[in-house]
Amino acid sequence: MNLPTSLAKMPDPKQYVSLRDAETPLFAGIDVGGTNIKIGLVDCQGRTLAYHTIPTEAERGPEDAAERMGAGVGQVIKQAGAAEQDVVHVGLATPGPLDLSTGMLLTPGNLPDWWNFPIRDRVSQHCRRPVRYANDANAAAYGEYWSGAGSEFHSMVLLTLGTGVGGGIVVGDTLIEGAHGCGSECGHVLIDSSPDARRDSLDKAGSLEAYCGAYAVVGRTNDALDAGRPSSLTEVRAEREITPLDVSNAAEAGDSLAREIVLETARYLALGIITLIHTIDPDSVVLGGAMTFGGAGHPLGEEFLQQLRDEVRPRLLHSLQEVLQIDFAQLGGDAGYIGAAGLARLEYLQKNTTDR
Amino acid sequence: MNLPTSLAKMPDPKQYVSLRDAETPLFAGIDVGGTNIKIGLVDCQGRTLAYHTIPTEAERGPEDAAERMGAGVGQVIKQAGAAEQDVVHVGLATPGPLDLSTGMLLTPGNLPDWWNFPIRDRVSQHCRRPVRYANDANAAAYGEYWSGAGSEFHSMVLLTLGTGVGGGIVVGDTLIEGAHGCGSECGHVLIDSSPDARRDSLDKAGSLEAYCGAYAVVGRTNDALDAGRPSSLTEVRAEREITPLDVSNAAEAGDSLAREIVLETARYLALGIITLIHTIDPDSVVLGGAMTFGGAGHPLGEEFLQQLRDEVRPRLLHSLQEVLQIDFAQLGGDAGYIGAAGLARLEYLQKNTTDR
Predict the structure, then answer these.
(1) Are residues B16 and B121 in the same domain?
(2) Rounded to two decimals, what is the model's pTM?
(3) I need a surface site. Which of B65, B141, B158, B303 has the fewest CB within 10 A?
(4) What is the ipTM metric for this complex?
(5) What is the domain extent for residue A16?
């Protein structure tokens, strides 16, 4: 399912900083998606100096893409007028599953021609720099933590609401990537243990994703329509498959079923967030991705967020109720490359600390 | 509810190391419980050199106890024949809730006369050393991680099954203590979102603790007996209230309801563990506490563990199924003071790294 980006209605937060004001060393971040590869040059504070996007053209294979990533990094360096030697480390984010220890991209669903490719080392070779490799949801979380919605906090949980539900957990300098690359898989938190629980794209029953992923929102809508609930969406469905944007638009227009579906999504999401808060007790929970019903500043998005807070608060441990912090992400689609660059910086700093 | 320690049937793992073989510096660990305060002197590898226990005598108040903790630390140093200057830092674990930033013990249920006491600084004064303060479940987790069931791993989740369900999460040098002292509260992971979900001691519906705490196991047993299920426990209940040990003993003796309750506990616990594994993806999940039905080497305990693994495995992300590691804790009641000492060591090392 393709999510129309307009559903997110995210402002583009990219505000370039000039090289004159940047703090060196600099870091390049690469975020590989199914359609585009985003490449940014980022300074020591997470500010973007230059940005460039290239089509993924996945069918040309990963070797070709790795070569183009190397060229793209060269291009953002040139674009920013930076010196080659100021860019010391590169961050690379891709969809999972991946093997962080070997730097292998394993079997990503949306990149079938790229399976089992040693992407970290190949990109490193083309960039002529060490590469810090990460899962894209984790990189996005680190990006928001470093220079977005989490930048004033010590710890943060990011939930990315899209086709699926992804996540990233950061506590201080520790990004929870997991012993087997499956840390922060917040979409697989269980929220329903009943025998008739919904199933997610991996056929797992009762997961957060099975209720809050884009396909789940559409699925719940279809179920309600099948049950004969009146809605303006009946007409839409007579012509084509319903999309999350249809649900969002109908809710905005006052369709009561659509509104119910949106607020029900908040109730399901709340169950996952309650569990995550009691597990991590982060300073803040941050919501990103297209399925935020417009997000910050948008009436439906704000109502969704308020419903979520209202559902979560009373079910928390007493001492957590007053300090509850749930907000929208701030970096939009830039979080991935900025976070990848941030992780590259972290690795660079840690290596330099250890080596001295 | 008091849990008879015999339910755990844990061997005492304390093997003293002599001062001659110990690695300096040394660390003292203090674990404050409702009945006893355990104090140990531990070397740089987590090995116990000397151990001493004093009655909590909570009614004498926290100031009196803090003074006796100071004397107790002096005693274990003397007992081990160590030099005062070799013991550089003290770790202190107490039940929560507590405020780590100020070192205040807040409102612990089992220490009503100790509420809002600045325990970290008072103990520090009496020990004449810096004190690293921690929640007891978190300290126990760090103890198991440092020198028990997790000692070969980089990351570990400990679940302590007792009257309630506690926990501790360690990833590398990061112990997830939370932004507000409520990190690793694994007993508050949600496992049941149905309207008739059981409630825990804090009246929260559907939490792991509401199904797997000692009172929950007894509650589920009583419910089954009320529903007319035949069981040898009917006779016990005619005379007095059923305890978890009764359920455990009846299960061992072949009582089918009691066996069902034990295996059902494993099924409920599995739901919480699936969520924790997808959130943290630790190298290992470790089970401690009295409610492990005999624990390692005991037929019922081993059956409980096997049932748990069988319930968890098929519901994990594919790449995690083969690497699943769930085991019993190894340090028994020593985990708390050893972990407190270990956290003191970590703080000592981090301070020394930062200061240089």
Answers:
(1) yes
(2) 0.93
(3) B303
(4) 0.93
(5) 5-136
